[in-house]
Design brief:
The complex is a heterodimer of chains A (about 290) and B (about 300). Chain A is about 35% helix and about 20% strand. Chain A has helices spanning about 1-20, 80-85, 110-115, 135-145, 150-160, 180-190, 210-225, 235-240, 270-280; strands spanning about 40-50, 55-65, 70, 95-100, 100-105, 120-125, 195-200, 225-230, 245-250, 250-260. The radius of gyration of chain A is 18 Å and the shape is globular. By secondary structure, chain B is an alpha+beta fold. The longest helix of chain B is centred in the middle third of the chain and has 43 residues, at about 170-210. The two termini of chain B are about 25 Å apart. Classes of the chains: A alpha/beta (about 290), B alpha+beta (about 300). The interface of A and B includes residues 118, 121, 141 and 146 of A.
């Protein structure tokens, strides 16, 4: 299984990077680094829930294109609120949220669906449809945005190969392990190759071995040029990932570290091996352990 | 174009999938729509028929002016002229006691005919029959016949008139009251049933939204447009409405063929009375059912599917 995965992912990676490094036509603001605005730019974002509870308190952060970043913090620190704010599920009471340089809260509400088509989302509870097969779950995401049947027939098997579920294509979600279900969810989120992937506690329901597999998959997606933002409370795992970590506490940013010295060019296999070694888990676990 | 049909197919399959899954509330909504449509389907022709019947009766209403038996010929002739001059009176007919007796005999044909013939004298008064242009002017004509005197009491225009002025008015009022009451009761029942259908369709759609909340959530997450999310529910509601209307129309057709049509052969009455053709009636019922169900789904979608 790992061998198969590696070969496929290598081939996929070259194709996907070719596809997604192409800059999409959008309003370009002059930026010192890359010449393009950061993919996520939050300026003094403040979210207050109806009860008066402040979920985010003047949070400011920037995430550049192609980054792999973590948001950590204890329960109730505003991590999930951040995700909801980024997909305009909730609007900030104050401050600005820019995705690829555009203030999403100034978009016409009718345009919100089109914003969400450019952002993949993955959740702790997978949000799969239990009465549809793996194939249909992924195809559903394409159907509801009006994708043609031939495109669906081409894209779905392709993305299921990428996440390593080509053998389970006709299984129903309850016949899959937690890790496999999360892979389906990731496939659904990534099937349109969005430039940004948000994951809210993607490994929250999974054991460490399976979690590494999921992280490896997210890293593989990141290597295709997609920005990946993972929200998690698993600080231990994050520290070992050696990626950028944004720490929130009570809705405020308390730490933003570009974890020094990590190897940008680490391959996904090297990454997984290192993670397993650091967490003291053997290689035999595989990626499909039950969750 | 292909993509368009693909979407329609998608909406339809989603709607039928939802209907299969939430069969019980769908059936409840369909049954209510059947009952409502059936009632409307019977009510509308009946109401229209009763309306035409009532106006027929009203058209026959006139005013009878009874005279004293000792009224002289000169008095009668003068009164004839005077009556014809009253506004709203279109025709004046004098009926002498002999004429009144003939009419009474004709009316009582059978039981009492013999006993009337046995009468030695004719007790019936001479009568003037007035025809009016409109039954609603009855009171005006009556007032013209009995203007108030110096003491303010209504006094007949001629001493030959035997007050009170005879009237078919009570009958007319009764007919009007009865048909009016029946109409109001039926309309209230129909309105209540319409509201019940609307709410039941709304409830069916609400349950369907609840049953499909995961789908809706996923659709929103992956960026389906609002109308893409709403259409399957709209279609589901309209399917419920169409099914209900279809069943009701089927029952109505059965009733028409087995009950009304054979009767209509025997009694021209029924045929004449049904002022509405079957085709326009069916079209109206189906349109109403679809409208009600679309409205029901629409209300629910607005309330519970804020995207």
């Amino acid at each position: 299984m790992p061998l198969l995965n590696r070969r496929r992912s290598a081939r996929k990676r070259s194709r996907d990077t070719g596809e997604h490094k192409r800059p999409a036509p959008r309003r370009v603001q002059p930026r010192p680094k890359s010449g393009q605005p950061p993919i996520i730019e939050v300026e003094d974002g403040t979210v207050v829930y109806p009860g008066g509870q402040v979920a985010l308190d003047r949070l400011s952060l920037q995430i550049g294109r192609g980054e792999f970043a973590f948001v950590v913090g204890p329960t109730g620190c505003g991590k999930s609120t951040l995700i909801k704010m980024l997909i305009r599920e909730i609007e900030p009471a104050a401050g600005r949220v820019r995705i690829a340089g555009r203030d999403i809260n100034e978009l016409d509400p009718d345009r919100t669906p089109y914003l969400r088509r450019r952002i993949g989302t993955v959740f702790q509870d997978f949000k799969l449809l239990p009465n549809r097969t793996v194939y249909d779950n992924v195809a559903y995401a394409l159907q509801v945005i009006g994708e043609s049947r031939s495109q669906i027939r081409r894209k779905v098997p392709e993305i299921l190969r990428l996440v390593g579920l080509q053998a389970k294509i006709h299984s129903y979600p309850d016949e899959l392990s937690g890790g496999e279900q999360q892979r389906v969810a990731i496939a659904r989120a990534f099937v349109n190759h969005p430039p940004l992937l948000l994951a809210d506690e993607p490994t929250g329901n999974l054991d460490p071995v399976t979690s590494i597999g999921i992280m490896q998959l997210l890293y593989r997606i990141n290597r295709t040029g997609t920005t990946v933002l993972v929200v998690t409370h698993d600080r231990d795992m994050v520290d070992k990932m050696r990626r950028r970590v944004i720490a929130l506490e009570e809705g405020r940013l308390v730490r933003d570290e570009d974890a020094s010295g990590y190897n940008q060019d680490e391959s996904t296999t090297e990454f997984a091996a290192r993670m397993r070694a650091e967490m003291g888990i053997g290689d035999e676990g595989g990626t499909n352990g039950s969750g | 174009m292909l993509r368009f049909f693909g979407r329609i197919a998608f909406f339809l399959s989603e709607a039928f999938r939802a209907l299969r899954r939430s069969a019980a509330p769908s059936v409840a909504a369909i049954v209510t729509i059947v009952v409502t449509t059936l009632l409307l389907g019977v009510l509308v022709p009946v109401l229209r028929a009763s309306e035409s019947k009532a106006s027929e009766v009203r058209d026959q209403i006139g005013l009878q002016v009874f005279l004293y038996r000792d009224a002289t010929r000169a008095e009668i002739e003068a009164l004839d002229q005077e009556l014809a001059g009253i506004p709203h009176v279109t025709a004046v007919e004098y009926c002498a006691p002999a004429c009144a007796k003939r009419e009474l005999a004709a009316e009582l044909r059978g039981d009492l005919e013999g006993s009337i013939k046995e009468l030695n004298s004719n007790p019936l008064p001479p009568t003037f029959k007035l025809e009016l242009d409109d039954p609603d002017n009855l009171e005006a004509v009556r007032a013209a016949l009995t203007p108030p005197n110096s003491a303010g009491e209504p006094t007949p225009i001629s001493s030959a008139i035997d007050p009170p002025i005879g009237q078919d008015r009570e009958n007319a009022t009764k007919i009007r009251e009865v048909t009016g009451a029946v109409k109001i009761v039926l309309l209230v029942i129909a309105a209540l049933l319409l509201i019940a259908s609307l709410l039941l369709v709304a409830n069916t759609i609400r349950l369907s939204i609840y049953a499909r909340r995961r789908e809706v959530e996923v659709m929103r997450l992956v960026g389906a447009t609002n109308w893409f999310i709403r259409w399957p529910f709209m279609i589901e509601g309209v399917i419920v409405g169409l099914t209900g209307a279809g069943v009701a129309v089927g029952i109505l057709l059965l009733g028409k063929v087995t009950i009304v049509d054979p009767l209509a052969d025997d009694f021209a009455l029924i045929d004449n009375l049904s002022t509405m053709g079957f085709a326009p009636l069916v079209a109206m019922l189906v349109a109403a059912a679809v409208l009600v169900s679309a409205l029901g789904s629409g209300i629910t979608l607005r309330r519970f599917l804020q995207v």
